[in-house]
Amino acid sequence: MDIFKCKYLTHENEEIMGFCLNQRCQNVTQYCYLCLNTTHQEHFNDCIRFTKLILFMNECMQVYNQQRKQIEKKLNKFKIIFIDQKKWIRKLIYWKI
């Protein structure tokens, strides 16, 4: 992962650690260690590190993939039922003629 640097002049060369997710926060959402201890200290729990964010995103992707596979299985079952019903309807039509 590339290293991002803090934009505050007094924090120059400090590595960005994560993002502040507090909706009421008026400060820059990216934070370094110094930002976390000064501008985001009142809502520390709303700040999430890149590592936790990546883990959370990976968990979401796993859940998404599991749900997608389940939906695909159900869709395939539905297709089979649909094809069978279509064949049955054709047979009924043929028998009536």
Architecture overview:
With 97 residues, this protein is mainly alpha-helical. The chain has one domain (9-96). It has 2 helices and 3 strands, in the order ββαβα. It has helices at 33-38, 50-96, and strands at residues 16-20, 30-32, 47-49. It has a 3-stranded antiparallel sheet. It starts with 15 loop residues before the first strand and ends with a helix. The model has no long low-confidence stretch (mean pLDDT 91).
Q: What quaternary form is this?
A: single chain
Average pLDDT number: 91
User: How far apart are the termini?
Assistant: 70 Å
Helix count, DSSP H or I runs of 4 or more residues: 2
What shape does the CA trace take? Answer: rod-shaped
Taken as a percent bin, the fraction of beta residues is 5-15%
List SSEs in N-to-C order.
EEHEH
